[in-house]
């Protein structure tokens, strides 16, 4: 009998401990951080051709002869911000030990001569434009991020997942795209000669193709295309569709 009571009390204290952790986490998540405390910073960084930013930031990337990294946001967020260049990649994130409630978005304005790739995550909003002579461009968006691309490149590779959305204006000779997890690609305004695209998990894609289209759609996904490609190879399953507008 004593053993049973001991286990009952032990279980009760365990549940109380878990409840305390949940309540504490909830307080952190929903704490009132007060009014916006504006701060601006300029980082003297150069030599990067790719940009990786997440944490619900707002990012503007533009082409320019010189490098520039300008950040605007709440001073408490900027105190925790890490901005650096690693292996040719401009990276920005927050120190992992501080789980502050980041109620206000941090805004980045980045100028660079050449752009080869972007990686946005965690509900980040991005606008990328002005790059007219890129050789190869890579764009990855995840975690409900949103982006706009205005570029011209010989080749472009796109990876969208987790309900992310990407729209584009421009042109490319070749495009390879992998769209999954309820993501959306809106590229009717982006003309491409050769397109290879895969959509899965309830995703939607719109592409503009002039020569060759290879498309696969599964899991309730839909691919729409405009243009008059001379070669079309398509495969759809699981309530999906591939069709010309």
Defining traits:
single chain, 245 residues, mainly beta, Pectate Lyase C-like, 16-stranded mixed β-sheet, 16 strands, disordered N terminus
Describe this protein's structure.
The protein has 245 residues and is mostly beta strands. The chain has 3 domains: 1-30; 35-109, no CATH class; 115-245, Pectate Lyase C-like, CATH 2.160.20.120. Helices cover 14% and strands 56% of the residues. The chain has helices at residues 2-30, 75-79; strands at 38-43, 50-53, 58-63, 68-74, 81-86, 89-94, 107-112, 117-120, 125-141, 146-160, 165-179, 184-199, 204-217, 222-226, 231-236, 241-244. It has a 16-stranded mixed β-sheet that branches. The longest helix is centred in the N-terminal third of the chain and has 29 residues, at 2-30. The protein is globular, with a radius of gyration of 23 Å. The protein starts with a helix and ends with a strand. Residues 1-29 have low confidence and may be disordered.
Task: Describe the secondary-structure layout.
Blueprint (H helix, E strand, L loop, with lengths): L1 H29 L7 E6 L6 E4 L4 E6 L4 E7 H5 L1 E6 L2 E6 L12 E6 L4 E4 L4 E17 L4 E15 L4 E15 L4 E16 L4 E14 L4 E5 L4 E6 L4 E4 L1
Parallel strand pairs: 2-6, 2-8, 3-7, 3-9, 8-9, 9-10, 10-11, 11-12, 12-13, 13-14, 13-15, 14-16
Antiparallel strand pairs: 1-4, 4-7, 5-6
């Amino acid at each position: 009998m004593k053993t049973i009571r001991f286990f009952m009390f032990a279980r009760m204290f365990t549940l109380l401990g878990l409840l305390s952790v949940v309540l504490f986490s909830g307080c952190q998540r929903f704490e009132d951080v007060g009014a916006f405390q504006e701060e601006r910073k300029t980082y003297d960084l150069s030599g990067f051709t790719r940009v990786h930013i997440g944490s619900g930031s707002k990012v503007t990337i533009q082409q320019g002869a010189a490098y520039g990294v300008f950040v605007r946001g709440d001073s408490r967020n900027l105190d925790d911000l890490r901005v650096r260049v690693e292996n040719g990649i401009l990276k920005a994130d927050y120190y992992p030990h501080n789980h502050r409630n980041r109620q206000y978005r941090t805004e980045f304005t980045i100028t660079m001569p050449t752009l080869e790739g972007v990686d946005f995550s965690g509900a980040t909003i991005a606008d990328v434009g002005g790059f007219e002579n890129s050789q190869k461009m890579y764009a990855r968006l995840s975690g409900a991020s949103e982006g706009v691309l205005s570029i011209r490149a010989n080749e472009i590779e796109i990876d969208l997942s987790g309900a992310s959305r990407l729209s584009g204006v421009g042109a490319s000779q070749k495009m390879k795209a992998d769209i999954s997890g309820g993501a959306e690609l809106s590229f009717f305004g982006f003309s491409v000669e050769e397109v290879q695209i895969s959509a899965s998990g309830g995703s939607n894609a719109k592409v503009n193709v002039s020569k060759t289209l290879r498309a696969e759609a599964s899991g309730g996904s839909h691919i729409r295309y405009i243009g008059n490609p001379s070669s079309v190879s398509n495969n759809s399953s699981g309530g999906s569709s591939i069709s010309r507008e």
